[in-house]
Amino acid sequence: xxxxxxxxxxxxxxxxxxxxxxxxxxxxxxxxxxxxxxxxxxxxxxxxxxxxxxxxxxxxxxxxxxxxxxxxxxxxxxxxxxxxxxxxxxxxxxxxxxxxxxxxxxxxxxxxxxxxxxxxxxxxxxxxxxxxxxx
Length: 135
Description:
The protein is mainly alpha-helical. The chain has five helices and no strands.
């Protein structure tokens, strides 16, 4: 299944491609196919622990969605589940309307937050006269 959809002869992967592949491997794992070597290779390709954890989440999401789809399907055919989850129609979305869920996006809870971003403060503000002293 996985080899039909993805080429296993790759040298480097971007995070989005790695997430897509990990999701597909999770679906395959739920359907009884083992691609653990490929999965470990994909995880090892990620530079940061954050990217590795995102790829691991994509794998788990693929497993969970495949279990649910197989349970809900009338015949539970693994080819139908694979086609629905992995080989589904590619949807293009405007940058302003990016979905917060699905195979190629992080869950909304994992979106980057601005709380840790440093504000652009003028270094002279620390030594300037406080506003309440102005008349």
